[in-house]
């Protein structure tokens, strides 16, 4: 089963919890066992599985990435549209995650959440693809 939905981002960089949306898609699918693949088809965004209960994790994550890949650090791509760092961060984070599905429930840790990472916002209609196999 293939589903897609869209989100809007509001900051240049931000992390948005998608767990509820993905769980709702799983519930509506009626599927009980398999895998759930979540994919973000964007070159300047990514997706992670991490804690979202403490909002400081999101801030810490973005700050750590900024130390590794600072904005406007002489990237050749910045000559085109100024977002070289966003492309590198997206590649480091990755564009998909795959989770097990058992008895109609995603198997994730107690503190884990599915989170969209925006590195070149704000943007409208960022696409999220969910495929249940």
Can you give a write-up of this model?
With 133 residues, the protein is of the alpha+beta class. 29% of the residues lie in helices and 35% in strands. It has helices at residues 19-29, 55-68, 78-81, 84-93, and strands spanning 2-7, 14-17, 34-39, 45-51, 96-102, 105-106, 112-118, 126-132. The protein has a 5-stranded antiparallel β-sheet with strand order 1-8-3-5-6, with helices on one face. A 3-stranded antiparallel β-sheet has the order 2-7-4, with helices on both faces. The longest helix has 14 residues, at 55-68.
How would you sum up this structure in a few lines?
The chain is α+β, with helices and mostly antiparallel strands. It contains four helices and eight strands, in the order ββαββαααββββ.
Give the topology, please.
Elements lengths: L1 E6 L6 E4 L1 H11 L4 E6 L5 E7 L3 H14 L9 H4 L2 H10 L2 E7 L2 E2 L5 E7 L7 E7 L1
Antiparallel strand pairs: 1-8, 2-7, 3-5, 3-8, 4-7, 5-6
Please supply descriptive tags for the structure shown above:
5-stranded antiparallel β-sheet; 8 strands; 4 helices; alpha+beta; 133 residues
Number of helices: 4
Q: What structural class is derived from the secondary structure elements?
A: alpha+beta
Low-confidence region ranges = none
Mean pLDDT: 97
Beta-strand level of the residues, as a percent range?
25-35%
Number of β-strand runs: 8
Order of adjacent strands in the largest pleated sheet: 1-8-3-5-6
Assign an overall shape. Answer: elongated
Order of helices and strands: EEHEEHHHEEEE
């Amino acid at each position: 089963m293939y589903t897609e939905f869209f989100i809007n981002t509001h900051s240049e960089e931000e992390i948005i919890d998608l767990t509820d949306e993905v769980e709702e898609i799983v519930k509506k699918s009626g599927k009980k066992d398999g895998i759930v693949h979540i994919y973000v088809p964007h070159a300047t965004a990514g997706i992670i599985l991490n804690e979202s209960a403490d909002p400081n994790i999101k801030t810490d994550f973005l700050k750590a990435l900024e130390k590794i890949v600072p904005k406007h650090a002489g990237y050749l791509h910045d000559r085109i549209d100024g977002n070289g760092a966003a492309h590198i961060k997206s590649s480091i984070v990755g564009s998909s995650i795959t989770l097990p599905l058992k008895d109609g429930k995603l198997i994730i840790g107690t503190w884990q959440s599915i989170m969209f990472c925006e590195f070149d916002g704000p943007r409208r209609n960022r696409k999220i693809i969910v495929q249940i196999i």
